[in-house]
C-alpha cells in the first residue's frame, strides 16, 4: 500500500513537471515575442450647411445681358441690363463647412447648364459659378466659410417677375 | 463540415460586398452636400408716353416781355392758365403717362432752353418745369400722369408766326 502511494506521488510529480515543461518553457526555448501599438483615428465627418442664399437682386432686362454676383457679394451688369437698387438685395451664397482640424477639402460647384431660375414658364440660366475658397478649401480649427457667386444670363425683354431656383455645392476631404 | 464551409463563404461574400460598397461610393461616405436657393427679380422698364401736347395758343406780341408762363397754377396738373394770351385762347400743359411694373421712385429730366421756331427766321426758346407737385415722383401702383408747363422766352428775332418745337423728356428709375 505504501508503495502504491509512493508510486502515485511519483507519477503525479512527473505529470506536473511535464505540464510545466510543456506550458512554461517552449517560449523560452523556441519563440520570440515583441510588441506593436495599434492605433485608429476617427475623423470628424465633413458637413456643409447654408448660411445665405444667392441673390441676384432686382434689375431691368432691356435688351438683355448678364448679372454677376462676385464671392464678395458685389453685383455687376453687362450688356443692356440695368441694375435696380430700390428694394433690391443681392449677395453671394454662403455656406458653413465643418470637418477635422486643418484638413483640406475639394469643392464641387454646379456645372454650366445645370442651374436655372424660373418664373412661371420663363427661365434664366445661372452659369460660371465661382467660390472663395476656390477649388480646395482648408479648414481652420475644423471650420471654414465658403462663398459662392455666379453669373445670370438675361435675355432680351426677359419677362418681369420673381425668378428662383436651387443649386447644390459638395465638399469632400482630399 | 459543409455548414462550416458555407458560413465561411457567406462571410467572404459579405466582406467583398462591403469593400465594393466602400470603393464604389466613397463620396457618399465622406462628402457632404448642401443646397441653397438662387433668386432674381426682373423689373419692368419704366415707360413714358405723351398724353397731351403743350399749347401756348395765341400770345399777344406786345405782351412779350422776358417770360410768359403757361400753367401759372402748378396745382392744376393738366391745364395751365397763361397770364398773357389772347382772351379765350386755350392752353394746355403737356402731360405724360408714366408706367412701370413696380411702384418705384423715378426722376424726370425737363428740357431747358429748347429752341423753337416758326420755320422761317423767327425763333424763341422754351424752358420746362414740373406742372404738378408729385415731388419725389413715386409711382403709386403702376401708372401716373405728370404735367409739364413751359416758359416761352422771346428770341433774338421775334415775329408773328406759329412756333413749334420738340421737347424730349426722359424718365428713369432712381
Describe the secondary structure blueprint for this structure.
The complex is a heterodimer of chains A (174) and B (174).
Chain A: H1 2-24, H2 26-29, E1 47-52, E2 54-60, E3 65-69, E4 75-79, E5 82-84, E6 93-98, E7 104-108, E8 115-119, E9 122-132, E10 136-138, E11 143-154, E12 161-173
Antiparallel strand pairs in A: 1-6, 2-5, 3-4, 3-11, 6-11, 7-10, 7-12, 8-9, 9-11
Chain B: H1 2-24, H2 26-30, E1 32-43, E2 47-52, E3 68-69, E4 94-99, E5 106-109, E6 114-117, E7 123-130, E8 143-154, E9 170-173
Antiparallel strand pairs in B: 2-4, 3-8, 4-8, 5-9, 6-7, 7-8
Detail the poorly predicted runs of chain B: 1-24, 63-69, 71-89
CATH architecture descriptor of chain A: Sandwich
Total individual domains of chain A: 1
Residue fraction in strands of chain B: 25-35%
Describe, in plain words, how this protein is organized in 3D.
The complex is a heterodimer of chains A (174) and B (174). Chain A has 174 residues and is α+β, with helices and mostly antiparallel strands. Helix content of chain A is 16%, strand content 47%. Chain A starts with a helix and ends with a strand. Chain B has one domain: Sandwich (Immunoglobulin-like), CATH 2.60.40. Chain B has helices spanning 2-24, 26-30, and strands at 32-43, 47-52, 68-69, 94-99, 106-109, 114-117, 123-130, 143-154, 170-173. In chain B, the strands form 2 sheets. In chain B, strands 2, 3, 4, 6, 7 and 8 form a 6-stranded antiparallel sheet that branches. A two-stranded antiparallel ribbon of chain B has the order 5-9. In chain B, a hairpin with a 5-residue loop joins strand 6 (114-117) and strand 7 (123-130). The longest helix of chain B is centred in the first third of the chain and has 23 residues, at 2-24. The interface between A and B is large, with 52 and 23 residues. Strand 2 (54-60) of chain A pairs parallel with strand 1 of chain B.
